[in-house]
Amino acid sequence: MILPEFDFVTFDTLKETLNLLNRHGDESKLIAGGTDLMIKLKSGEATPKYIVNLSSCEGLNYLKDNNGKISIGPIVTHTELINSSLLNNFAPVLSAAAGVIGSPQIRNQGTIGGNICNASPSADTVPALMVLNSRVKIVSHDEERWASLKDFFLSPHHTILKGNELIAEIEMEKLPEGTLFSFQRVSRRKSMDIAQMSVAVALVMDENKEHVLEARISPGSVTPTPVRIHKAEKILEGEILTDNIIESAAEEVSRRAIDMTDTRWIPEYKKPAIKGLVIRAIKDAMGQRGQMQ
Amino acid sequence: MKKIKINFILNDKKQEMEIPPNISLLDLLRNHLGLTGAKKVCESGECGACTVLINGKAVNSCMVLAPQVNGKRIQTIEGMSSGSSLHPLQKAFVDKGAVQCGFCTPGMLMSLKALYDEKTKVGREEIKRAISGNLCRCTGYQQIIEAADIAFKGRAKSDFTGI
């Protein structure tokens, strides 16, 4: 297949990369895994003058415990997220979300930074990152700023990232030990399909694992940009989770998501489906209580 | 558009080439190196027929920009057998009739080889997961899974007896 013409540029250091972006950012595209960019090059949607390769740029590939937070470099692949013992112990919701992306081939290639920056409403890692209160470090040749993930997205496929900037780090909270997590997703089939809807849930529990101290719920694929549904979270907080309480929180997620809807929606089926998915996620999270020490 | 020089290891042999940057790894293999084992089908990372290994991991070569393989180790179906002796996975595919039209076979075998090189003991669920990004339009999945199972079991046995 014929791809548009471009120059391919690789630097070893972030400084050189950012200097190039400073001069040519608006006519450049960044490549890490390339699984989204290749589609756009083939369709003619992207016709950059330069493709700037991040995969051999130093200082972008790490996953580490950072003073009670978890810091992840943007070019860490989905397979690495799945296999990380740090994530499996402290943020298994992110490993679970990464585990349903595309196929083994796509997970071996695609990166967390790419999943975020492509800004698809169906990006699987994003709801998981939302319940971990993630923020991103945005750098350019002369500036460094942090943005919370919820403020990073402007609309589907649009972010606050300027042409001369890139995400240099994704940082998330390490929630207290014993926090219950779940990531659930609906798609037509298990592999090679984008999510029709998904939801990530985190429940911080009291000592006896009975009452919810703090709840975090973020649905995916059903709102134009990622959100937490605080009203639904409040319904769960301070409570012992009975079927009634779980159902009214799930109802609230569905109602709120419908309110924020755009024309792509088919509320008739999505309304009960998202409610059912939230119930499934909360019950799945609750089910992990027995497995803990 | 500047041509770009790349160095990589292809099926255990060093390659140094000057290529246009705007080609996929699949086109590099098929059109520039004459390796037509990786098949060109969906061109969008959905079917797995173009699967090759980069540094031991299965990827869709249609979704990799050729210059990205600089410094990497690439394995394709052409390097899977050693001389005339088939890889145990290939032999099991032949023995179990896991090949019908054959178009998905190189991709299936490369996905399974990634698993074969990574782990010794592998169950059916892991086999299914490993080929979940490979479509077979003859729908011969059952035979493919059985063939892989036999290859993995055969190895576990030979490892056990020290052969």
SSE string of chain A: EHEHEEEHHHHHHEEHEEEEEEHHH
Instruction: Report the biggest beta sheet of chain B as strand number plus sense, adding barrel if it closes.
Output: 5 strands, mixed
What is the fold-level CATH name, i.e. the topology of the largest domain in chain B? Ubiquitin-like (UB roll)
Terminal Cα span of chain B: 54 Å
- State the distance separating the first and last CA atoms of chain A: 55 Å
Which stretches of chain A are low in confidence, meaning pLDDT under 50 for 5 or more residues running?
A: none
- Give me the count of strands of chain A: 13
Helical stretch tally of chain A: 12
Approximately how much helix is present in the residues of chain B?
Answer: 25-40%
Please mark out the parts of chain B with pLDDT under 50 across 5 or more consecutive residues, or reply none. none
Q: In angstroms, what is the radius of gyration of chain B? A: 16 Å
Strand order of the largest sheet of chain B: 2-1-5-3-4
Number of helices of chain B: 5
Shape of chain B: globular
Largest interface: A-B, 32 and 35 residues
* Strand line-up in the sheet with most strands of chain A: 4-5-10-6-7
Q: What is the C-level CATH assignment of the largest domain in chain A?
A: Alpha Beta
* Shape summary of chain A: globular
**Cα-atom radius of gyration of chain A:** 19 Å
**The number of domains of chain A:** 3
CATH topology of the largest domain in chain A: Uridine Diphospho-n-acetylenolpyruvylglucosamine Reductase, domain 3
